[in-house]
Amino acid sequence: MGKLSEVDLVSALQSLPGWEIRNGKLHREYRFADFVHAFGFMATSAIAIEAMNHHPEWSNVWNRVVIDLTTHDAGGITARDIELAARLETIATRLL
To answer: What is the pTM of this model?
Structure first.
């Protein structure tokens, strides 16, 4: 799977509210009501992540989850990162 072009990235970001390119990675920060909701998002997302076998760089501090997506084998952002971001957005929307 190849790295997306700048044009493709700009186009993809239009359908991913809150996501941006930061340090060459697809980046998003979520703020939930509390730790339980943030952890619930991560636990629920883990199932979709594992099914895709495409794992994010992410961290959690209390109500905040920070996510960076990139495909290391391709050396940048690919369609798999966009697909995972869309899935994460769907899950987060239910918990925000």
So the answer is: 0.94
